[in-house]
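Intended use. Records like the one below are meant for learning the mapping from a protein sequence to its folded structure. Do not use them to infer anything beyond what is encoded.
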Amino acid sequence: MSKKYTVFTYGSLMKGFYGNDTLMKDAEFIGEATVDGNLRFFCSDYPVMIKKDDGKSSVKGELYHVDEVMMERLRSYEGVGSPLTCYTEKVIKAKTEEGDVPARAFVAMPGIAVPVKLSSRSIPEGDWRLFKSSSRWLPVAQPLQFYFVAIVIGTIFWQMGLI
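Structure written out for the chain above:
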């Protein structure tokens, strides 16, 4: 019997987006949920969530059940383990109408949360679908060189256990 995971998606892996069409087609949709955090937009077509437990802001998304094979594909898609990504996998508390559910999410690595904030802009509603349907999502010039250097340095420090 294959291990099952509950995954919280908040961007390109949600219904109607290209990541869902290609990677999540065999996933079991559970329902909508929110988590505490801050949703950020880069000039690419990917959001990133900075995980916060202060309850001041939330991120809207979807919950899915996936098997081990699909979970490995999701880790690869998000770049987990690569020094060129800003994502790490974290177990979070997703809030649903039925109550809280532990789920895995791909969030900003703790060591690069500040550079992510400096090289992105906030999505105050925490809703990628709403943001993408507005004209505010259009790319804006951002300091990409700073972003990539900060990610590499932050990842190295994080993997060394310095942050």
